[in-house]
Amino acid sequence: MMPRKPAQTSEENELETDEPKATGKEPKDDNKDEIQNLNRMLAAVLIYLSDDEVEEIDIEYLLDNTEGLREWWEQYRESNKKQVEEEIKKSLGDLSLKELETILEQIKDKKE
Predict the structure, then answer these.
(1) Residue 21 to residue 19: CA distance in whole angstroms
(2) Residue 24 CB: number of other CB atoms within 10 A?
(3) Using CA atoms, how far apart are residues 101 and 95, in angstroms rounded to an integer?
(4) C-beta atoms surrounding 19 within 10 Å
(5) How far is CA 46 from the centre of its chain?
């Protein structure tokens, strides 16, 4: 069994205050909160990954014990899924009917 770590440590709290300022302008409060939240989640993941006592990485543990990470991951996957679907639709428009039928047959063969 793998050792468990708390989701947030004092090191993470220190990292939360370090915000990147790419444009020199103050981001909106919502953006600042989102940046702080992402910094906190990233710090929690990196602290977990860098722990020498952890022998096997447990993604479910990270998702369960890092506040907001599971929700962020699900939103990211959904957003990425929509982007991939759009790219596929655009690509399919360039294929001939014969090429589409060949792809469909290949998919059917893999399922069987």
Answers:
(1) 6
(2) 5
(3) 10
(4) 12
(5) 14
Structure tokens that stand for 84 in this block = 């991939």
The string of DSSP codes covering 48-108 is HHH-TT--S--HHHHHHHSTTHHHHHHHHHHHHHHHHHHHHHHHHTTS-HHHHHHHHHHHH
pLDDT tens readout for residues 7-38: 544 444 444 444 444 555 555 778 999 999 99
Cα R_g (the chain), whole angstroms: 21
Residue the block writes with tokens 């991939």: 84
Return the structure tokens found at 63.
């998702």
Both tokens of residue 20?
Answer: 């990147």
Q: Residue 23 in 3-state DSSP?
A: coil
List pLDDT tens digits, range 62-79. Answer: 999 999 999 999 999 999
